[in-house]
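Predicting holo structure, zinc ion bound.
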Amino acid sequence: MPIRPPIHRAVGRREKRERDHDYQRKRDPVARAFYRSKRWQTERAAFLHDHPLCAECDQHGVIRPASVVDHIDPHGGDEAVFWDRNRWQALCASCHGKKTASHDGGFGNAPR
Ligand SMILES: [Zn+2]
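Done. Tokens:
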């Protein structure tokens, strides 16, 4: 069985996994717990079942399956806003990535 060669990394440079972890924690410390909850897993799956197509693509006449439940407006860690299904929309990963990048600057950059 082949063995993966060690990855060279400059001294002091941390793994991407560690950097991503810190970024997520800084980005939304309260909502992190919501996203990891059983309730979110269940409600997310139910919402995608009810809304199987990407809402953003649909506006452009494209039919694409949704894979992400997006909060239309940022919830900012507010529990009531977070769980309000009327503020959710189903998006494909591509549309969600574009929206997130335009909202928070993307690639770890400061919000615009
Ligand atoms: Zn889409």
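The radius of gyration is 17 Å.
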